[in-house]
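hi! just following up on the protien thing from before. the input was this:
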Amino acid sequence: MRDRAIEGLTTLACREDWRSSEHGDLIVGRVKAALSDENPVVRMTATHAFRALYADDAAPDRIRLLGELLNSEPNLNVKNVLLSILGTEAHESPREVDDVLRELANEPKKPTEEAQEDEDDDEGADFAVDILTFLT
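and the predicted 3d structure came back as:
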């Protein structure tokens, strides 16, 4: 149920007229909170509004926040969506994007939710490959 609700709020948050409406602060607040929800489907859905939620922030601030989200995200699929969003920031602040990617590439391998469910699967390596692919 929450994933359906956040889908609607995400759609509204992506529209400037709704973000600036009398309900805009509530909509934006709920979608921002969903970025750290316990449910990965809710988090992934909320990430689609990231650029709209932080449209007024400077690119380096958005990139810093994306780096924080990437560092704390345990779900590989959500991480890949965040990495894709990070890629859209590369033209505005390439140095900051490089810093985030360097930090991600150098951090110790943390188990993802998927890898914890199936210890024989090497999901963390897939994310490292995604980062290297992005860099090429």
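The CA atoms of residues 5 and 109 lie 33 Å apart.
The mean pLDDT is 85.
cheers
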